[in-house]
Amino acid sequence: MAVTKTHPIKSTLKAAIDYICNPDKTDGKLLVSSFGCAAETADIEFGWTRRHAIDKGTHLGRHLIQAFEPGEVSAEEAHEIGMQLAKEILGGKYEFVLTTHIDKRHIHNHLIFNAVSFTDHKHYHSNKRSYHEIRRASDRLCKEHGLSVIVPGRDKGKSYIEHQAAQNGTSYKAKLKAAIDRLIPVSSSLEDLLVRLQREGYEIRRGKYISARAPDQERFTRLKTLGADYTEEAVASRIAGGPRPSRQPRQRSGKVNLLIDTQNNIKAQQSAGYQRWATIENLKRAAATMNFLTEHGIGSYEELAERCDAVSAAAIRTRESLRDVEQQIADLTLLGKQIDTYRKLKPVYDRYKASKDKEKFLRGFESEIILFEAAAREIKKAGLTKLPSAEKLKAELDGLAARKTTLQAELRKIQREEKKYDTLRRNIYTLLNLKVKTEKQKEPELQ
What is d(CA 322, CA 25) in angstroms, rounded to the nearest whole number? Predict the structure, then answer.
C-alpha cells in the first residue's frame, strides 16, 4: 500500500465529489458507495449537517486518498478495504462518499467525508495523531488482506541528512553499528572490542560514556546514542553471549511465554552463550506451562485442545455479537438522522405542497425539498408508520452503546485467554516432540 494522504476541502465540495464519482474513473459508478447520504446529494446533506454545528471550522470536508501497489489488488477488494477503513476511522458519525479509481496504473480509493459529525455536530479535528491512527488502521487492513504495506518508523529519530546518508551507505552511525556487530563475535570483552575498533581507524574517547569517531568524522558518537543494543552494558552482555536487549521477550509475572526454538535459531547455533541462556529460559517457560495446566486441572493434550477450541468458539460468538450490535447502532443512528431531518423540514415541505406556484417555491427551497424527500424515503424503507420520539431513540442508542462496551471488554478478555491457550498448546506440542526425539535417540542404547 502506498502512502495514505489526507487534505481539507475548503471550497467547491460538489466539484470534489463529482470528480471522485467520475464514471470514467469508477467503472461506470459501480465503484461508488456512500454512508449517511446519497452520493448525488452529498454536498447538500453535508451542508445541512454543518448548519446545525456550533464549531463549523473552516473546512467543508476532508479528502483521503488510499493507494495500492500496482497489480496487487482487484478494484472490488480495494473498495471493500476502503469501506472498512472509512467505517473504522469515522465510527459511523460522519457522512461520506467512497469511490475507487481504476484509470491509473495503481488502483486507489478516494474518501470524502463531512468535516462535521451528524451525530453530535462536532467538528472533525485533523492532526498528526488522527493521521497516524488512519495509517495504522489502513496498514492493518491491508495486512489482513495479504497486501504489502510501508513499514513506518524504520528511520524514526534520524535527521534528513542521516536518513540520506544511511540510504547511500555513508552514515557514520550506521557504519559504527555495523563495525560493532561484526566485531562482537570475535571479541573477548568490551575492552578487546574497543581495541579492535581502534585498529580499524576509530578514535576512542573515554569518560562518563564511551564515544567513537571515524577518521573523517567531525564529532564523536556516543555508543549509547546508537540504540539499546549498543550501550556499554548491552555490548558487554552481547560479547558474553547474551541476546540483544531490543529482541529480548518482555517478561510478565505469571505469564506463559512461547518456548524458544533453539533447533532452528541461527544465533543459538552460532553462540554458545545464547544457547545456554535460551536453554535456561526454556526450562523456566516449560515449568510455567506445566504449573498453569496443573492449576487449571488440565491433565492431557486432548483436554488442552478442547479448552483451546472452547475459547476460540467463545471469541467467534462474541465477535459476531459485537458486529451485530455495531450494525444496530449504525442503522439506528442513521435512522435518527433521517427522522430529525424529516421533522425539521416537514413544515417547509407542507408549504411546498400547498403552494400555488410550486416551481417558484422549489427554486427558493430546492435543497430543503431534496433532503426532506430523501429522509421520507429512508423512513418508509425502515417500515415506520409512527415516528419514535427523540428520547426513545436516545434511550435505545444508550442501551446499545452500553452493550457494545460490555462486549468489547469481554472480547479483550477472551482474546487474552485465546493467546494464552495457543501458547500453551504450542509449548506442549514442542515438549512432546522433544520427548519423542529423545526416546528415539536412546533406543539403540537399550538394545
Answer: 36
Q: How do strand 108-114 and strand 221-222 relate by DSSP bridges?
A: unpaired
What's the angle, vertex CA 27, arms to CA 63 and CA 134, rounded to 5? Answer: 30
Cell numbers at 115, concatenated: 468535516
| DSSP conformational letter for 9 | E
Site of grid cell 526425539: 437
- Which stretches of 209-260 are assigned E, i.e. beta strand? 211-213, 221-222
Question: Quick one: CA torsion of 312, 318, 319, 320, rounded to 10 degrees?
Answer: 110
C-beta pairs of 89-94 under 8 Å, 24+ apart in sequence: 89/133, 89/134, 89/137, 90/35, 92/35, 92/119, 92/326, 92/329, 92/330, 92/333, 92/334, 93/117, 93/118, 93/119, 93/120, 93/333, 94/36, 94/118, 94/124
User: Cβ neighbours of residue 285 under 8 Å, at least 6 residues apart?
Assistant: 256, 257, 258, 259, 260, 427
The secondary element (H helix, E strand) that includes residue 52 is: none
Q: Check if the beta carbon of residue 194 is closer than 8 Å to that of residue 223.
A: no
* Rounded Cα gap, residues 245 and 230, in angstroms: 9
How high does pLDDT run on average in the chain? 85
Dig out the grid coordinates for 234 from the structure: 548491552
Model-level pTM greater than 0.70? no
- Give 399-422 pLDDT, tens digit per residue: 999 999 999 999 999 999 999 999
For 301-342, the pLDDT digits (tens) are 888 889 999 999 999 999 999 999 999 998 999 999 999 999
Give 242-246 contacts, CB < 8 A, sequence gap 24+: 242/273, 242/274, 242/277, 243/267, 243/274, 243/277
Q: How far is CA 327 from each of CA 79, 94, 402, 409, 435, rounded to the nearest angstrom?
A: 19, 15, 14, 18, 50
Cell of 59: 473546512
Sheet holding 211-213, edge to edge: 203-205, 211-213, 221-222
The three-state secondary structure class of 162 is helix
Asked whether 116 and 48 are in contact (CB, 8 A), the reply is no
